[in-house]
Design brief:
The structure is a single chain. This protein has 108 residues and is mainly α. 56% of the residues lie in helices and 9% in strands. The protein contains five helices and two strands. A two-stranded antiparallel sheet has the order 1-2. α2 crosses α3. The two termini are 27 Å apart.
Amino acid sequence: MGRMPHSNPDELAEVLHTLGISPLRTGILQVIQRRGTATAQNLMDELHVSRSRLGPHLKILVDAGVLIEGPDPAAAGARSGFNRLLWRINETVLEHHLEFLVSALHAQ
């Protein structure tokens, strides 16, 4: 999936709020899309959230197949092994979900 053009952050926030889409999950996807992969520490640092707030959102995205979780071959983890996982976007699944949403909105 190609990068979307930069949008007005206020407009994005308004659309997410209107559709009931979690801004944190969107932030997770934006960080990972920009970086290619991200550790929990990367996400916590860039999104300014705690591990306890981040975890449930990562689980939902992984369970839905939108994120793929794997071991971080470069690090054993700076904080008791917390950085040992990397997440990347499953472009095929994300595209499917977005296409489904658009088609559902266009359904008569």
